[in-house]
């Protein structure tokens, strides 16, 4: 059993029993579900040695269902993974992923769909960022992804999330993409995305206690961008803005990033005591987060 099935079982186990009554008349549906389940696990058994045949088998599951359901969703999720990581066809993986997103409205629970989307974007981002394949599936080597294809994965995700009015995951997705653009040094794309994030935060509910936390995450990305592009005037402006944020509970790694960039800023101004203080605070935050950056 792989992580896809574990995710689904964990989600199914968390659903509450609302006292629904079941009758024997449903036995026919149970038989049909059992057939699809058998098809799914047979397809999974082909993944390692016959990925193309596995792909056809997963597609057969999707086409055999008259309505969108969890088995079709899981088959599309496996197909996306195969196409991207094993067969190394990112454009085809994108098409399958786009189809999968149409299932998130009704076929599976919101939590399971969110977990699946995050999982897919994680390995797509790893392939697009470093050329390294995540998960070790298939042993086919690195995955090369054009920036335009990579951007499209996030674009179709944002469109689907906007349609379902899932603002929280939409913001998390944009933050994930912003980190990717920073790693790839795509500063023009990053700059535009940061502006979009600031607009979304400004338009958000002022009573939302997570607003300050998200704002600090955006500032951390912004301050790294200005540090790398050596725009020290803007860096200092963002650094001071970070210190004014209230009602935030940021991850210690985020504060580690902000303090590290602050230390470099103070060094540039030859304010050694300030630099020492910020570097020490950075180290403490990285250490609390268990980040290897504390060694650096």
Automatic annotation (TrEMBL):
SMART domains reported for this sequence: PAM
Outline the segment boundaries, as ranges, of region: Disordered. 1-38
InterPro entries for this protein: 26S_Proteasome/COP9_Components
Q: Specify residue ranges for compositional bias: Acidic residues.
A: 1-34
Domain of life according to the entry? Eukaryota
Record-given protein name: COP9 signalosome complex subunit 2
- Species: Tulasnella calospora MUT 4182
């Amino acid at each position: 059993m792989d992580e896809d099935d574990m995710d689904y079982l964990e989600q199914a186990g968390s659903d509450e029993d609302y006292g629904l009554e079941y009758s024997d008349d449903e036995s026919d549906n149970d038989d049909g579900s059992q057939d699809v389940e058998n098809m799914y696990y047979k397809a999974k058994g082909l993944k390692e040695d016959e990925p193309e045949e596995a792909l056809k088998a997963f597609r057969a599951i999707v086409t055999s269902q008259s309505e969108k359901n969890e088995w079709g969703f899981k088959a599309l999720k496996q197909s996306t993974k195969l196409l991207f990581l094993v067969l190394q066809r990112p454009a085809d993986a994108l098409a399958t992923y786009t189809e999968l997103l149409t299932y998130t409205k009704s076929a599976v629970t919101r939590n399971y769909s969110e977990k699946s989307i995050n999982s897919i974007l994680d390995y797509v981002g790893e392939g697009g960022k470093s050329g390294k394949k995540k998960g070790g599936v298939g042993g086919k080597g690195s995955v090369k992804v054009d920036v335009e294809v990579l951007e499209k994965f996030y674009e179709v995700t944002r469109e689907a999330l906007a349609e379902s009015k899932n603002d929280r995951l939409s913001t998390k997705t944009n933050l994930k993409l912003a980190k990717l653009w920073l790693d790839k040094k795509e500063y023009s794309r990053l700059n535009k995305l940061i502006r979009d994030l600031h607009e979304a935060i400004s338009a958000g509910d002022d009573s939302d206690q997570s607003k300050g936390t998200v704002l600090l995450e955006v500032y951390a990305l912004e301050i790294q961008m200005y540090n790398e592009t050596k725009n020290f005037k803007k860096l200092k402006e963002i650094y001071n803005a970070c210190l004014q944020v209230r009602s935030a509970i940021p991850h210690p790694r985020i504060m580690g990033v902000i303090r590290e960039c602050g230390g470099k800023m103070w060094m540039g101004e030859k304010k050694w005591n300030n630099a020492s203080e910020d570097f020490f605070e950075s180290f403490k935050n990285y250490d609390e987060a268990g980040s290897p950056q504390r060694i650096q």
